């Protein structure tokens, strides 16, 4: 296994290096490479997580195929043999962790759906009994299941933290028709995925989606989808409302960092070997629960 913290593909046009992904432009499309970097509180941590890039890419591919009856997505191929030669020559850097995708104009909104009250939504509820302008019943406890999933969008900040916004603000940003469309599709995707995951032992407490407009003017699902980086995954067998839940996502890393005297600004502290190993195991476990497959065996790793 090779840990990839940063790709270097000579001859390829690097468009952007995000917190986790390196994005290349090729022939009017993009190649997205999920590295093993991990971020928390919008800071990239110094230690990579083994197999993380594989998990993010392979789970996204699984969900893109599962959800294509609801909305088209940007995935063209994850088969390296269909990538330009410059990527084939750098096979070890891109294998199992890359997607060739359509270029699209991203909408300036993070589409967050919550089926349970946790994280920033729990903090907001305690202060105002509402989340993103949506009034919620009195008497909810941390991690309670909501009567219906709610759409709680946020801004997409290039720097700093995203900010929760109301649906009315989304309308101001992109117009009534498109705002209603992404809200309704986000809720439909979440409902279908949550039912599927629950039957396999995982609660999807909340998640975020990103949408873009492709060259034909069509709305498509982009970026990653329903991964341990973009979602809060809880083991159904251990679910007990009234407190924070154990998770299959990077909440484990966040919890460790919260126990330190760190001000959440760079540079981030080193992660202990035990935290790195446990986080890697949680990502792989999430993949196995959702797909029924052992990823390392599937990829012959």
TrEMBL record:
It is an enzyme of class 6 (ligase). Signal peptide: none annotated. One of its GO terms (molecular function) is phosphoribosylaminoimidazolesuccinocarboxamide synthase activity. The keyword Nucleotide-binding applies. Pathway: Purine metabolism; IMP biosynthesis via de novo pathway; 5-amino-1-(5-phospho-D-ribosyl)imidazole-4-carboxamide from 5-amino-1-(5-phospho-D-ribosyl)imidazole-4-carboxylate: step 1/2. It catalyses: 5-amino-1-(5-phospho-D-ribosyl)imidazole-4-carboxylate + L-aspartate + ATP = (2S)-2-[5-amino-1-(5-phospho-beta-D-ribosyl)imidazole-4-carboxamido]succinate + ADP + phosphate + 2 H(+). Its EC number is 6.3.2.6. One of its GO terms (cellular component) is cytoplasm. The keyword Cell membrane does not apply. PROSITE patterns: SAICAR_SYNTHETASE_1 (PS01057), SAICAR_SYNTHETASE_2 (PS01058). Residues 15-266 form the SAICAR synthetase/ADE2 N-terminal domain. Keywords: ATP-binding, Ligase, Nucleotide-binding, Purine biosynthesis. GO terms for biological process: 'de novo' IMP biosynthetic process. NCBIfam families: PRK13961.1, purC. Belongs to the SAICAR synthetase family. HAMAP family: SAICAR_synth (MF_00137). This is Phosphoribosylaminoimidazole-succinocarboxamide synthase. The gene is purC.
């Amino acid at each position: 296994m090779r840990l990839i913290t940063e790709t270097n593909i000579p001859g390829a046009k690097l468009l952007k290096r995000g917190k986790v992904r390196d994005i290349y432009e090729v022939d009017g499309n993009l190649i997205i490479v999920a590295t093993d970097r991990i971020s928390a509180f919008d800071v990239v941590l110094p230690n990579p997580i083994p197999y993380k890039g594989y998990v993010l890419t392979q789970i996204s591919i699984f969900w893109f195929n599962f959800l294509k009856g609801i909305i088209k997505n940007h995935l063209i191929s994850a088969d390296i043999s269909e990538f330009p030669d410059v990527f084939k020559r750098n096979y070890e850097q891109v294998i199992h962790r890359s997607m060739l995708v359509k270029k699209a104009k991203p909408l300036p909104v993070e589409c967050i759906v919550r089926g349970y009250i946790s994280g920033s939504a729990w903090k907001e509820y305690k202060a105002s009994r509402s989340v993103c302008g949506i009034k919620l019943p009195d008497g909810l406890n941390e991690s309670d299941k909501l009567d219906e999933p709610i759409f709680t969008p946020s801004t997409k900040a290039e720097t700093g933290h995203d900010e929760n916004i109301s649906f009315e603000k989304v309308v101001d940003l992109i117009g009534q028709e498109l705002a209603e469309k992404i809200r309704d599709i986000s809720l439909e995707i979440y409902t279908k995925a949550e039912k599927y995951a629950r039957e396999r032992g995982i609660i999807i407490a909340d998640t975020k989606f990103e949408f873009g407009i492709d060259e034909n003017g069509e709305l498509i699902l982009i970026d990653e989808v329903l991964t341990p980086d973009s979602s809060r995954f809880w083991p159904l067998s251990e679910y007990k409302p009234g407190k924070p839940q154990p998770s299959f996502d990077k909440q484990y890393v966040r919890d460790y960092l919260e126990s330190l005297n760190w001000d959440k600004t760079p540079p981030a502290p080193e992660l202990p070997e035990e935290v790195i190993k446990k986080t890697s195991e949680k990502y792989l476990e999430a993949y196995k629960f959702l797909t029924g497959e052992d990823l390392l065996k599937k990829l012959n790793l």
